[in-house]
Amino acid sequence: MEFSHVSVLADEVIENLNIKPDGIYVDLTLGKGGHSKRILQKLSSKGKLIGLDQDAEAIKASKENLKDFSNVLYFQSNFENIDEVLQSIAIEKVDGFLMDIGVSSYQIDNAERGFSYMHDGPLDMRMDTSNELTAEKIINEYSQDELSEIFSKYGEERFSKTIARNIVEYRKKQRIDTTFKLRDIINHSVKSKEAHPEKRVFQALRIKVNRELDVLENTIEKAVDQLNVDGRLCIITFHSLEDRIVKNKFKDLEKDCICPPDFPVCVCGKVSKIKIITNKPIVASKKEQKENSRSKSAKLRVCQRI
Ligand SMILES: C[S@@+](CC[C@H](N)C(=O)[O-])C[C@H]1O[C@@H](n2cnc3c(N)ncnc32)[C@H](O)[C@@H]1O
Fold this sequence. Notes:
Layout: H1 10-17, E1 24-27, H2 34-40, E2 48-53, H3 56-65, E3 72-76, H4 82-88, E4 94-100, H5 105-109, H6 135-141, H7 144-155, H8 160-173, H9 179-189, H10 199-210, H11 212-225, E5 227-237, H12 240-254, E6 274-276, H13 286-291, E7 299-305
Parallel strand pairs: 1-2, 1-4, 2-3, 4-5
Antiparallel strand pairs: 5-7, 6-7
Helix pairs in contact: 7-8, 7-10, 8-9, 11-12
Bound molecules: S-adenosylmethionine.
């Protein structure tokens, strides 16, 4: 299957990264390398791009897509290990980071990866297929309360309790091992006229399987700490749970001393690390939204190291 993916907000990312031709840039979510190619086109031969993806197939596809560039280093790794990756190549500071989080169109469209309710496939959902936890394991082995909590916390699903109860009933008879079996259970549990009532549970499972919110939260400050002064961090998110984490983390990193106002001297020692560049997130133009429906929910937030 061909690895297809259209990069979102690509012009906006390039503009906001403020690329220096001889600088070092890190694409934390390479995918097919669409954004990386645009970055590489702005770099001189002295500049460097470091690309990470936890999905082996993405690494393979980006190597092919970027084969004309010699100044790229590839790492198959979760971006939460960015400090160790940079340490392994003796790089202390870089000039910019990009995160374009979530899944690529290739991952969604490939039935075998089990991300989509539109294709029948194994209930997998792992971006890194060497990890042990799959969606199938969660659906068949977690308790009713745990399932309900996952659907409600990561999917904001109103019918989480009913869906969890029906899953537990169904699995007494047979294992729920495909995306369509799960989709059908959800559709029977939710009385709704919306097109795809199963989308929130699928989102919740994907987040849980890949620890998506935890790794995002853990990585933002690590990236900021490894930026040169004036270097930028650009983050594209696709749903409100992720965007809220980015917004709040940026606010926290921008804040100076947080001692109570009546303290004569600062005892907390907190200093501001960044300036927020985007008070409101950048969204896709009407034209881009028309051409690429995935871009409709995309939000880009940018901060700069001070
Ligand atoms: C939306 S795609 C990126 C597309 C890319 N910007 C492009 O233009 O082709 C997201 C990619 O990030 C990867 N990814 C998501 N979370 C990750 C994480 N925590 N660590 C490493 N890679 C991750 C996914 O495997 C996927 O390939």
